[in-house]
Amino acid sequence: MKAVGKTFKSATQLYKEIKLIEETGAWSVEVECVPSKVLEEISKNTSMVTISIGSGNKADVQFLFAEDILGYGKIKLPRHAKSKSSKTKCKIDNTEFCCSQSVKKIK
Q1: Whether 18 contacts 29, CB under 8 Å
Q2: H-run or E-run covering 75
Q3: How many CB atoms lie within 10 A of CB 88?
Q4: N or C terminus: which one in the chain shows less Cβ crowding within 10 Å?
Q5: Considering the entire predicted model, what is its pTM?
Q6: Catalytic position from the list 22, 32, 41, 67
Q7: What is the pLDDT along the chain (107 residues), one digit of tens a residue?
């Protein structure tokens, strides 16, 4: 996916499109791969709830995938994701999964 809103022209066009969506009566808009500073300004200037996927934490809601956060995904970690896991393997009821080292071992 290619980033949108990196230039003034592109950011302005994105803002206009989001305002058009707002005029339809929509209550929220999902925004992907937009610079966080651009999304921050858009969020300040719309009554809709802005939802960020890969656009930083300046939206009203930031959607994150558990696989990215836990470091359990099978693909390379996306640029916008930060793993919060030490990639320790845990096992509960014969099901193995990743967990942080702060999780207490179950006897």
Answers
A1: yes
A2: none
A3: 14
A4: C
A5: 0.65
A6: 32
A7: 678 888 999 999 999 999 999 999 999 999 988 999 999 999 999 999 999 988 888 999 988 777 666 666 676 665 555 555 555 555 555 555 555 544 444 44
Distance CA 16, CA 107 (A): 57
The secondary structure of residue 26, as a DSSP letter, is: -
- Token pair 């696989």 is at which residue? 67
Q: Which of 83, 87, 90, 50 is nearest to 65 (CA)?
A: 83
- Decide if 32 is catalytic: yes
28 beta partners: 49
What does the CA dihedral 38, 39, 42, 43 come to, rounded to 10 degrees? Answer: -150
Residue 7 C-beta-side C-alpha neighbours within 13 Å: 3
